Amino acid sequence: MLDKTKRYLVVGLGLLGGKYALELSKAGFHVDGINRSEGHLQFALDHGYIERGKTHDFEDLVREADHIIFGLYPTALIEWFRTYGPLLKPGCIFTDVSGVKTGLVEPVQALCPAGVEFIASHPMAGRETSSVEHAAEVNFAPANFIITPTGKNTPEAIAWVRELAEVLGFKHICTLTVQEHDRMIGYVSQLCHAIAVSLMCANDNTSLCEYTGDSFRDLTRIARINDKMWAELFLWNRDNLISEIDQFDAALGALRNALAAGDREKLEEMFRLSTRRRAAFDKKLPE
Question: Where in the chain is the domain with CATH 3.40.50.720?
């Protein structure tokens, strides 16, 4: 079980960072916070998500932290760690919430001071909303929590982040390599967002709300998107995402060709394959 005498520090009190702070505080842990926005920091303080918090001159919070959760974009995390990483005390184990690991994990691990360890992880529980004000709306129980260890990680750090996920409420926890994670995320997350964005950008949709159905609403739910975060994630994982877009483009092209040829048999074949794969997927979904 995690030691409740340890001090936790959340750097970046956004949607996920705020949810981590909320759940850890509810579980009886000592949680501090660092955030760029004074208003969001004050919200976290007023609602008991954190005990202490600062927007600047926070070196003391960094030095005192036994564990740190980084709720930052990959670029911001590396920049922050280059500046403040040397302040982390020996024995500190920390993790992140980033949706891309290649280009992040290796540089940060290389920057770690002696006795400090970075074990990367990814809570797949994002929403269309953002900021700490919406953190309480996030439900970790049905979401996947992915741990991405490297050869530099100790069994102790891996066990810590797994126990952290359990305290946070995740019911499904798995382990992937950094490369496996980014290939997987290119398909199951980033490609889906790319399709939703493309669908909304294909034409002017301003009047569709008057007559659209559930299909359009479901397909475009994630098109309401954090532009800065997703642009960064797409670019950091561009090779994997381009490969997935090409694969999707080929499948859509096959459907288009069947339509152009009036090939009902091919269309029905694709529909049957899609139905079978979705049924198999539904059976494996965590309850």
Answer: 7-176
Q: Specify whether domain 181-284 bears CATH 1.10.3660.10.
A: yes
Whole-model pTM: value is 0.91
Output the DSSP codes for 79-144.
Answer: HHHHHHGGGSPTT-EEEE--S--TTTHHHHHHHPPTT-EE-EEEEE---S--SGGGGGG---TTSE
Helix (H, G, I), strand (E, B) or coil at 146: strand
pLDDT in tens, 231-284: 999 999 999 999 999 999 999 999 999 999 999 999 999 999 999 999 998 887
What tokens were used for 94? Answer: 């920390």
What span, in angstroms and rounded, lies between the C-alpha atoms of 3 and 105?
Answer: 25
Is the domain 7-176 a CATH 3.10.20.30 member? no
